[in-house]
Design a protein that fits this description.
single chain; 274 residues; alpha/beta; Rossmann fold; 2 domains; 6-stranded parallel β-sheet; 3-stranded parallel β-sheet; 9 helices; 18% strand; binds NADP nicotinamide-adenine-dinucleotide phosphate
């Protein structure tokens, strides 16, 4: 069984972003809105700060209250601020928040993780310059880095979230795979696993998918990341030597995701300048 690694792809993306930023007179600026009461996102935001500043991208985080009004006002201010290139909202926003409504205020020209319906609409209709949600794009980059054939292959995406499952299913379809999407109401998932050439796991449940039940030559891309009480980090897939390849957790999709975020900032920078 081969382990699929994201490090090399991530380094290439970051190097490219750094070279691009170095040549710019006006540097890109990335702003993250983080809820004051959400301590779980602090580490993630600090990692993004480190990543962005190491590439020459300006970084700002804004602490938010549990207030729809404040979120919307801030988003609209950032939409109109020409010095701001990209905006991300850490989720969940806050208990009881109407996330769709709040995110709908974010301009697709600043929506770095393609969270809004306007951004996802561009992906849905296959616009040439669409921006994909970072994790979905990272999955596709890992597949491409290993030259995994998708044309005519039977691919199963487990998970149908707006941020990972659905967008990646569309992107796989664009690559001429025959795509099936499974979710929490799918019957006999374990039994179905053996029918697919490629399986993309984005379920958010540790070890939910047992790789030993997949085809012998199956390739599995695991987007999951779970921090267990014993200190170990695992994915949505329980690995098995039986299959052809599985992406490493940690060190696979997640490693590329943080680089894609930086790449998306540059895409927005150029989009905003026509
Ligand atoms: P999510 O919003 O919680 O969605 C989970 C999806 O999995 C839902 O569509 C759900 O189905 C489905 N599901 C749940 N239990 C299932 C089951 N027993 N059988 C089949 N399907 C099931 O999660 P997400 O935000 O898409 O994230 C998915 C995974 O990606 C998580 O492990 C997360 O940690 C990871 N992630 C990784 C990165 C990265 O950079 N690597 C970034 C973001 C997320 P229903 O729709 O029916 O509820």
């Amino acid at each position: 069984m081969e382990l699929l690694l994201g490090k090399e792809t991530a380094l290439k993306i970051k190097e490219q972003v750094k070279n691009e930023v170095d040549k710019l007179e006006v540097k890109p600026k990335y702003v993250v809105l983080i809820n004051k009461n959400d301590s779980s996102s602090i580490g993630y935001v600090n990692m993004q700060r480190k990543n962005a500043t190491s590439l020459g991208i300006e970084f700002e985080s804004i602490e938010m209250d549990d207030s729809e009004e404040q979120y919307i006002e801030t988003i609209e201010r950032l939409n109109n601020d020409k010095s701001v290139t990209a905006v991300m909202l850490t989720r969940p926003l806050f208990k009881g928040a109407d996330e769709k409504k709040i995110i709908s205020h974010l301009s697709s020209l600043k929506d770095v993780d393609a969270m809004s319906s306007a951004s996802l609409g561009e992906l849905f209709v296959g616009s040439s310059d669409y921006l994909a949600p970072c994790t979905a794009e990272a999955i596709m980059k890992l597949i491409k880095a290993y030259n995994i054939e998708l044309k005519g292959k039977d691919v199963l995406v487990v998970g149908r979230s707006i941020s990972v499952g659905r967008p990646v299913a569309l992107m796989l379809l664009e690559e001429n795979a025959t795509v099936t999407i499974a979710h929490s109401r799918t019957s006999d998932l374990n039994d179905k696993l053996k029918n697919y050439d490629v399986i993309v796991a984005a379920v958010g449940k540790a070890h939910l998918i047992d790789a030993s039940l997949c085809k012998e030559d199956a390739i599995i891309i695991d987007a999951g990341i779970h921090y267990l009480e014993d200190g170990s980090i695992v994915g949505d897939v329980k690995p098995s030597d039986k299959v052809k390849a599985i992406s490493k957790v940690p060190g696979g999709v997640g490693t590329i995701t943080s680089a894609v975020l930086m790449e998306n900032i540059m895409k927005l920078y150029h989009k905003q300048r026509g």
